[in-house]
Amino acid sequence: MSWPLLTGLLLTAAAPDFSAPLTASGEKTSPSVATLTSDGQRLVLDVDVVDTTPSAATDDIHSDHVEVWLGLEDPESLMPARLVTTAPRGGFFTVRGKDDPKALDAIIQGQDPGMSEPPEPGDCEDDIQSARGTLGSAPAKRTRMLVGLAHLGFFPDGRAPVLYDLDRYAGLSPALAPGDATYEARKTPTGYHVRAVLQPGALLFVPRDGVRKLRVRVDAIDAGPAGTKERLRSTHPAPKWADAETLKVITLATPLTAKLVEGLPELGQPAPRGPGVKQAIEDLPPYFLRTGNSWVGLRVLRESPESFGLRACSVQLDAVTGYRPVTSSFGPPAAFLGEGTTRVPVKTLDGTATLFLSRAPGDLRGTLSEGPVETFRFKDGTPGFLELLTEPMMGRYTSGACGAADDIRLQWVRLGKQGPTRTILLTWTTCDSAIQDSEEHVLARQPDEAVGLEPKLKWTTPGQKLRVTFGPKQVLEVGWRPDGSGVKATAAPTP
Question: Where is the signal peptide, in residue numbers (predicted)?
Answer without folding.
Answer: 1-19
